[in-house]
Amino acid sequence: MATISIEKVLTKKGNHYKARVRETKHGKRLFEKSKTFGKKSEAENWANSLAAQIKERGIPSIKPCDKEILIGDLITLYLEDPITSRDLGRSKNAVLRRLRSYDIALIPAHELTATHIVQHCRTRLVEATAPTPQTVYQDVTYLRSVINVAGPMFGYNANIHAHNEAIPTLIKYQLIGRSEKRDRRPTQIELDLAEAGLQKRQSHHASYIPLVDIFHMSLSTCMRLGEITRILWDDFDEDAGIVTIRDRKNPRNSKGNHCVIPLFQDAINIIKRQPKTDRRIFPYKSTSISAAWQRTCLENHIYDLHYHDLRAEGACRLFERGLNIVEISRITGHRDINVLNNIYLRLSVKDIHRRIN
Question: In whole angstroms, what is the distance from residue 294 CA to residue 299 CA?
Fold first, then answer.
């Protein structure tokens, strides 16, 4: 017997009602169809009529174009599927979850048009929170990744051409934009303040994360926070002075992208003094560390300094130590040398003068 559910959806334009009719057998989904209405009574009438039709005539044959799904439901499938959600980052996860609260989530995936995407971006840019075009760009790219797998992964029809039509217009009228290159380099005073703030925070009786050690580890190794919290004791070779970073971030494929990097003595000392209570050397959540960093910067009036900037600062220090760009790329893991050239833009004229004299 078909089951009916009516879900109230709050959007920017008010309340909508999403009706869903589903037929299952022994836990296996045989049929599902959903549609959104402005009134609850309309949603109930449509759902009851479809359920009665299924009871009387059986499950209707489904053509490829009939496999409809709302974009919001498609996003939910994407977030909950063990394959598509396997390597989902925190930022993409948050953006997709937020997208489900906008009007675009109520559009059937096969009816998505360039106009819908442009309208969503226009709506986002006039919000009270005033997101930047760079932030809105995330909405567009992450939604595209969901639309592109609607058919191959889930068997639903979706318009995969809408983004190709929308993006030229979005770029032309600056409704979206790529992230600007950062040239922020912390001063020594800011780093000292940050270290003192982290020390104070980790000294609290309820704290258990060695924030200062991780802070210095970031500067010394140029590792991302997620990489530091992932390395195992088995990955550390004290005699050789190296550590293996497994599945290091890579634009093409992170799986199997293992990198072996040399460690300076300060990093070796930091690792050696960690207690062996876990397979991981730093068995802590990267989100907790980044949150502590943000609060520390706020408390000490250090503005516009991201934790990821410590990675670039570490690369600048490697340059100042005399390493060449190829040697530095082996440590930072950058495959594109141009990325390192952009990091060098953070070096001031005084830094370069000090380096060559």
Answer: 9
Q: Which helix (H) or strand (E) holds 145?
A: helix 133-148
77-81, 169-173, 249-253, 284-288: which range is least confident on average?
249-253
Strand 236-237 relative to strand 28-37, pairing: unpaired
| pTM of the shown model | 0.61
Rounded to the nearest 10 degrees, how much is the dihedral formed by the CA atoms of 108, 112, 115, 119? 50
With respect to CATH, is domain 188-356 assigned 3.30.70.1520? no
Give the span between the Cα atoms of 260 and 237, in whole angstroms: 10
* Cα distance between residue 96 and residue 115, in whole Å: 20
At CB < 8 A and 24+ separation, what contacts does 344-350 make? 344/316, 344/319, 345/181, 345/183, 346/182, 346/183, 346/184, 346/185, 346/312, 346/313, 346/316, 347/185, 347/316, 347/319, 348/185
Contact 274, 144 (CB under 8 A): no
**Strand 236-237 with 242-245, pairing:** antiparallel
Q: Is the pLDDT of residue 17 over 80?
A: yes
Per-residue pLDDT at 357: 52
Q: In the chain, what's the furthest Cα-to-Cα distance?
A: 88
Angle at Cα 75 formed by Cα 134 and Cα 7, nearest 5°? 120
d(CA 113, CA 104) in angstroms, rounded, equals 10
Token pair for residue 79? Answer: 């977030």
What are the residue boundaries of the structural domains of the chain, listed by start?
A: 3-61, 71-172, 188-356
Distance (Å, rounded) from C-alpha 120 to C-alpha 72? Answer: 14
List the single range of 159-168, 284-293, 344-353 with lowest mean pLDDT.
Answer: 344-353
